[in-house]
Structure formats: C-alpha cells, structure tokens
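Researcher: Here's a chain I'd like modeled. Treat it as a single chain, no partners, no ligands.
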Amino acid sequence: MELKSLEIPNILRAKVAVVGESKVGKTALCQQLASDGTNYPKNYLMTHGAGVHVKAINIPDTNDCVEMYLLDSSGKELYTPILEPLWKGSAMFVAVYNVCDEASFGSVVKVRGSIFISFLESYSLTRYDTFQWIEHVTRVVKDGDEKKTDRKLMGVLIANKSDLGDRRVVPPKAGSDLAQQLGLLYFECSNKDYSGVEEPFFYLASEYHKQFEEKSDQIGNFA
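Model: Modeled as a single isolated chain. Structure tokens:
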C-alpha cells in the first residue's frame, strides 16, 4: 500500500488591533468575519476593554495559513490603559469608522494643525475628536517593539455601514482620499449584509504572508 506524504501547513499567527470609536461596528465586523457571516449581533453590547476573535485565512496557491487574532478594542478612551499593553506586538491594525457618523471619521487620524481640519471641511465635515486611533495604536506598537526594527505597521481603513446609503454623511471619496494620504488601502463594508467584510482581512493576510516569504528568502541567502 502506497503511503502519501502529508504536507504540514505553515501557520503564521498575527495579532490585529481593531480600533475606532464606539458604535462603528467593530465587534460585529469581527464576529461576522470569524463566523463567515453567520453571527451578526442582533443587539448592541458595548465592548469593555477588549474582545478576541480568531480567523484563519488560507493563502492561495500555498500550503500556508495566516491565523489572525482580532483584538476588538473598546472605543472608549477610558479603556486605553488596558488596551495599550494588549496592542503591543500587533502586526497590523484595522481602523473602522461609521459612514453615518462624521465624528467617528474625524477620530481615526491625528489632527495636525489646520491641515486635517481643512481636509474635513472640504467635504463639509466639521466634527472630529481629539483622540486619534491610528496615531495612538501605531505609537504604542512602535514603543513596544523591543527589537527596534522600525518596521511599518500594516493597516487598512474601513468605512462601515455602507448599506445605510440614505443616512450616509461621509462620502466614499473622503475615505479613499484620507487612506491615500495615510498610505493605507481603503475598503467599504456592511456587517449586516456581510458585504466587503472579508476583503480587507484577506488583503492584510496576503501582505503579512509576503513579508514572511521575503524574510525566509533573506535567511536562505545567508544559509
């Protein structure tokens, strides 16, 4: 009897900090992704501190899998002393805002003088917060990098609740322009319809796998 050799898959594990204001849909996003669209929460429950969800993403044409540990972070600033130690060691982040809430859009990036304010006002958006999620999480991860590798933290910007078109106040161009300025990719999704939920995470998993392959090649060259 001929025995077939078994290929053991490479499982790459990565922590993903999911950040943004309260009520933008971070928990629903994580739950829907982890359950392949079968666990949309019927009622809103505020996240106290953080929740963890796991999603394994197979990389096409390889025997590799990226296992993403989604750190669903509370949108309340008072929980940051709890969140900061958890964010350390993150390989990537996901910044989420609600297309129906301009304040949630204005809180994803640091306001630098009048430049960002002018950017918001050019889209008739006047509300923004002083607490800025992307700036905060990237600083915490960089400060916690013991090896001081100066690696760029991968991330994406997600405009959530795209199904609520009649209530939308943040236009798609505002989101895509902001993402371009930050060097991020822009995605839109609807947790309720499970539309566009997978794409940003598949992109991040693919980019993380590319980094793994590049490092493997570098090690192979020195061997």
